[in-house]
Amino acid sequence: MSKLKNRRTLDTIRVAVAEDHSLVRQAIVMALKKEAQIVVPFHAENGKELLEKLPHHEIDIVLLDLDMPVMNGMETLRILRKDFPEVKVVILSMHDDPWIVSELINEGISSYLKKGYSFDEMIDALFNVKFKGRHTTDIIEESMFNTNELELKGRLHTAQLKLSVRQLLILKMICDGKKSEEMAERMMLSKKSIDASRADLMKRIEAKNPADLVRKSILMGLYKPRTDEQIINEESNENLEREARRRLRSDKKEIDNDVSV
Questions:
Q1: Whole-number percent of the chain with pLDDT over 70
Q2: Rounded to two decimals, what is the model's pTM?
């Protein structure tokens, strides 16, 4: 059990989990159920399923994955804030970009846990959000203290252009010099979807060509140039996460095969 000292006893925290990877979702639910004060009325594999189930349950907090098919975390968050303002949201994500976290804070999240968090930290986050209204992590502090004029300009243009987190991530990879095939693999999308997003971004930003898209993205605060080392480290972390998930899926398949024999 987590050692959070200021948690209130006897109060129950009702948590819903939205995570598209079944083994990760099951592990989270199992960990939550070990806490006497936490109940999990339901869980979902995407935002659409979450929103369909939510009206039938009383929920205090949603643990929300950012990258999901059908309906992603940002789209789900905006609907939650509009239709279920009393429900608190804690984001689970592999992304460590402080600017993206800033956008999510502006949209009304109560905490942000980067995947790789310990279950104790997740439990502490839930109790802090329930009884204090928020839970601060290192990346939240970084996103709050590193805000400068260019980042503020970027937030303004993001809102004006109505860019989603997914579009911001694709824009960042375009500006990093990534090809559509690379982006499709990393975002788990088709090349056709990436090309359509690229064309849409060119139109929204009114860029004449790819170089103009990068130039305007920097001037508008939508993209912050990074060193090759920073880009490589980010890709390495994503590859480790992807390999871990691949192994989980492989292990599950072997278990299922053993059970069926």
A1: 79
A2: 0.58
